[in-house]
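Quick entry, no commentary yet.
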Amino acid sequence: MESFWETLKCEKYYLHTYHTFEELERDIEAYIHFYNNERSNENKRPQSDAIQD
């Protein structure tokens, strides 16, 4: 199971240098929207969907 904060740090925070708190806050808000609405849901499928007989 992935950690949201670990994913945010790897996919966004570590790849950018922030000069102001507002810039960081804006990027985090945009990433949360992306994570909840646009990102692939492969890792979030219920276990029963992932099991193939």
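second:
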Amino acid sequence: MSGIARAYVGALIQDGQTFHSSHAPVAGSNGSLSILLLEVMPRGCPTEVLDGGFITAGSVDLQVNGSGGVMFNDNIRAT
């Protein structure tokens, strides 16, 4: 990674399979993302200290079929 833009410390990281308590997610100045052991992070790198909590991978799937008595997918016609 070329230069660390910011490291986020103080939260438990879950990568989908494992919890990492002695690691920090790190954003590189080139746009890269990685997880580093706290003991190998360079001294003096920009750091955001979090007040506990979890950092996890995730996504949101939103689907709107209608509202207020109107179904958007009722009368579908090809144009």
